[in-house]
Amino acid sequence: MVRVGDLHIGVRSSTLGVRDAFEQALSEHLVDDPEAQPSYAIYQTEVTLRGARPRYRVYHNCDHIFTASSLDRAVAVVIANLEHHLPRGMIPRSVLELDVAAVVSPSAAVLLPWPVPYRVPDMELRLKRSGLRQLEGASVFVDVASAEVLVPRRRLTDRRWQHPSDGRGAATTPLAASGRLRIASWGLLRSVGDSMPQTRARAVWHGMSIVFGHHPQADNLRGLAELVGQIDIDAIDSYEEAVPFSMRWLAT
Amino acid sequence: MLQADDIDMTFVGRVRPDVAAEILDGEAVLYHEGNNTVHMLSPTATILWECLDGAVDLDTLVGELSAAYQVDREQMLRDVVAAVQDFGRRGLLVGVRADADVVASSALDPASPGERP
Question: Is the pTM of the predicted complex or chain greater than 0.80?
Fold first, then answer.
């Protein structure tokens, strides 16, 4: 069990190696609480091909939320999601929290609807080859005035860790570095047969259903309009399994 | 309180003051604070929306618009009345009773997005 603010949240591990890595990363937050139920889980996939590496599937309750190519990343994803449960201070009016995924390069970001990261096979590996990564958190904070993604400072731990089972030499920092990244575009799903363009108004209309309620909705509406006035809106076909075009652009 | 179906060419439309609007590239997105609904309007409906200032009836409005856009007046009148009736059903106009089913279909889910379980 992990102590997160006033909560005790369980994280289930499928192997001892996974458990060791997680406990190493969050040792100072571990507590014994037989009453708490596991809310997150990391499952290491079976490796059937010689030389292949396992994947690590991260679940929140029954929802598959991430497939990581390394144990480090899987632990990082759980930590970022646990931080979602910490109490938040006052959020400035210009900052909105959106229920989207974000893929980032060292200097820019694209916003994506949640189904995309699950649907694209081996998305994390493909992003990594292009120097990109998906932010680990369950949601994304954006500053609508500057059209930037705010990558939060880690609050549970900023420890560097790497489990020996990953065996890649020097320790890495599997969590994205905090800071601001310019938003290049926002991808919206386009369902089969939908020939309508994904306009800025559509993005705002959709955004109203995925913005968290930190501010009055009328303020959210103004904020979303301000945001989309500064970025591109992309259409992503709902059946597409390729890495969306906007991310390929980000990699250049 | 008027029923939306009763709106005709003599109706003087005025948007509710608790409806926030943002217009992007000619398309309006509306948030109705009173019933927590979100609406998106086509470019044509957005033009009409901006004209509903409570000053003129629909017949006069259509006269002005049909001259400006050089379209058939009778056809435009039918379209405008239908569009304003639709605004009324959504609860966006002063003095017009909203249709509960239409409002429900546009309502933001108060639990989503919300706090994580």
Answer: yes
